[in-house]
């Protein structure tokens, strides 16, 4: 069933282990007519990427595995998941340079669907790269607790016949955090928000230690596991991989209500880790207030200005310690922003 604006996410079952999995399906832009426009984005490029080379992980996909070892998934007959569409959110995602059709003016312009297909394909490629990078790096991280709060990547299955790429993830049963917040009239209690926030901070710390920055942290991309009441950070489609400890990014990506001012400013390359911390502050505010800290409907310029000026108001019911923590996160200068370690030691977190 279709449950996402960009992708079809299906619930499926591993035939051998009976494990439930979520499969994100993306149509691959290799239609005959598309070949010229979308050169270099065939599925084979993806499955043979660097991250497979020195890894023996069972879940790595390789051509050799295909005949005898390919994991089989089937749709369970009785199970369905539904997710509400998020029409009210203002989102912007900078297209990567290669996805802009005007880059090759001598060729015929691909139609809108082709461009969207390719953009979505690139997002999925990015997601697979990020999740594989985390799988590869995770052994090197001392504190493993945060790994529990990141959606597990299981497999990539190419369906060449149907020109589809299936990204297999562990299935998380409770829906996304946005829906959880929406289901409460006035946001979550501080206690419940603290419980989720601690896990999010741990999860983000873990991914940063794996040299991955999420760059689109928001409640819609955080799933809640119904059974354990744990959060699972998902949707790594805009993640960035830190090649060195001091690597910075220039790509503007994220969602206005949660994106850091230094990302919007485009004055200089930004530190993806600091930008993720800003987004965490916006999520914390949203969880408890039930509204965004920065939100001006139908006026993107004004919203951007509001973020740049760090202009927001606390609801009257916010406790002093909570306000103090949020004030230390939503700091315009990324270098003066509180760190993940300091957040965990803040009195509100105790
Ligand atoms: N592993 C999973 N288990 C259960 N549901 C999932 C899983 N991954 C994604 N979903 C559902 O699909 C929705 C969209 O997934 P995701 O955020 O990864 O895609 P997206 O690129 O943001 O698509 P869109 O822009 O349309 O939201 C999530 O909000 C969630 O409800
Ligand atoms: Mg998403």
Task: Tell me briefly what this model is.
With 350 residues, this protein is an alpha+beta fold. It has 11 helices and 11 strands. Helix 6 runs antiparallel to helix 8.
Protein described:
The chain is α+β, with helices and mostly antiparallel strands and 350 residues long. It contains eleven helices and eleven strands. The strands form four sheets. It has a five-stranded antiparallel beta sheet, with helices on one face. Strands 4-11 form a two-stranded antiparallel ribbon. Strands 7-10 form a two-stranded antiparallel ribbon. It is globular and about 55 Å long. Residues 30-71 and 75-105 have low confidence and may be disordered. The structure holds adenosine-5'-triphosphate and magnesium ion. Residues 3-7, 9, 22, 83, 151, 169-172, 175-176, 220-221, 223, 234-235, 237 line the site of adenosine-5'-triphosphate (ATP). Adenosine-5'-triphosphate is lined by residues 3-7, 9, 22, 83, 151, 169-172, 175-176, 220-221, 223, 234-235, 237.
Distance between the termini: 41 Å
Structural class: alpha+beta
Computed CA radius of gyration, to the nearest angstrom: 20 Å
User: How much beta, percentage-wise?
Assistant: 5-15%
Helix content: 25-40%
Query: What's the overall geometry?
Result: globular
In this structure, how is the largest beta sheet organized? 5 strands, antiparallel
Poorly predicted runs: 30-71, 75-105
Strand order within the widest sheet? Answer: 3-1-2-6-5
Number of strands: 11
In N-to-C order, the SSE pattern is: EEHHHEEHEEHHEEEEEHHHHH
Chemical compounds bound to the protein: adenosine-5'-triphosphate, magnesium ion
Number of helices: 11
Q: What integer is the average pLDDT?
A: 78
């Amino acid at each position: 069933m279709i449950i996402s604006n960009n992708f079809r996410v299906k619930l499926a079952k591993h035939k051998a282990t009976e494990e439930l999995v979520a499969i994100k399906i993306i149509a691959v832009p290799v239609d005959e007519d598309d070949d010229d426009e979308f050169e270099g984005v065939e599925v084979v490029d993806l499955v043979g990427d660097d991250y497979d080379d020195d890894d023996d992980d069972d879940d790595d996909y390789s051509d050799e595995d295909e005949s005898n070892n390919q994991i089989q998934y089937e749709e369970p007959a009785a199970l369905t998941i539904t997710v509400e569409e998020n029409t009210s959110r203002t989102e912007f995602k900078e297209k990567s340079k290669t996805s802009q059709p005007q880059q090759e003016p001598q060729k015929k312009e691909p139609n809108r669907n082709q461009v969207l297909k390719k953009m979505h394909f690139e997002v999925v490629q990015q997601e697979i790269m990020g999740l594989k990078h985390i799988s590869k790096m995770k052994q090197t991280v001392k504190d493993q607790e945060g790994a529990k709060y990141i959606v597990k990547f299981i497999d990539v299955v190419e369906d060449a016949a149907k020109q589809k790429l299936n990204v297999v993830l562990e299935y998380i049963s409770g829906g996304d955090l946005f829906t959880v917040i929406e289901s409460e009239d006035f946001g979550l209690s501080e206690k419940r928000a603290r419980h989720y926030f601690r896990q999010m901070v741990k999860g983000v710390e873990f991914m940063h230690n794996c040299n991955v920055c999420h760059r689109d942290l928001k409640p819609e991309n955080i799933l809640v596991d119904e059974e354990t009441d744990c959060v699972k950070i998902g949707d790594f489609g805009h993640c960035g991989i830190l090649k060195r400890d001091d690597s910075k990014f220039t790509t503007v990506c994220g969602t206005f209500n949660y994106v850091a001012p230094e990302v919007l400013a485009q004055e200089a390359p930004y530190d993806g880790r600091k930008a993720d911390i800003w987004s965490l502050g916006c999520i914390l505010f949203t969880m408890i207030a039930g509204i965004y800290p920065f939100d001006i409907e139908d006026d993107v310029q004004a919203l951007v200005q509001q973020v740049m000026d760090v202009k927001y108001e606390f609801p009257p019911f916010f406790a002093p310690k909570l306000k103090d923590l949020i004030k230390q996160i939503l700091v315009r200068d990324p270098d003066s922003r509180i760190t993940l370690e300091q957040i965990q030691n803040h009195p509100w977190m105790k």
